Amino acid sequence: MGLFGRKKGGASSPRSDRREVDEYLSNWVQSRRGVEVYVEPRTAVTGTTVLLVAHDGEFTRRAVRGPEDAKSFAREAGLPIYDATVVGYPQRMRDYSRKQKLIEKRGLDAGYDEERGRGLL
Fold first, then answer.
1. Considering the entire predicted model, what is its pTM?
2. Which of 52, 54, 66, 95 would give a disulfide with 58, using CB separation of 3.0 to 4.6 Å?
3. pLDDT in tens, the chain (121 residues)
4. Spatial separation of the C-alpha atoms in residues 41 and 25, rounded to whole Å
5. What does the H/E/C string look like for 64-83?
6. CA dihedral angle for residue 8, residue 49, residue 15, residue 71, rounded to 10 degrees
């Protein structure tokens, strides 16, 4: 199996899945600044994952085959890499999540129309 697991539905190959995820992660890194890589170990429920966190706390997570693949990605991208079980998660990530929930709540409370991107009032 490739670096990243197969998609549900089984229509694509592991190699194309890897390219897709590699491209996604690379694009994500290029469109943000101050990105750091965190490796999350395999658990009973999920496999090893790589977590990218930007300067403002925005983050994304993708499955990888193992920690070595995450290290390889970080090295090729020139990004710092951390073991999430050792250093934990950055406070800015939690702050970002909290802020997004508040924005969503306020938007819904104010009658925000998600399709049109504006308030209903």
1. 0.75
2. 54
3. 445 444 444 455 566 677 888 899 999 999 999 999 999 999 999 999 999 999 999 999 999 989 999 999 999 999 999 999 999 999 999 999 999 998 888 876 655 555 555 544 4
4. 18
5. CCCHHHHHHHHHHHCCCEEE
6. 180
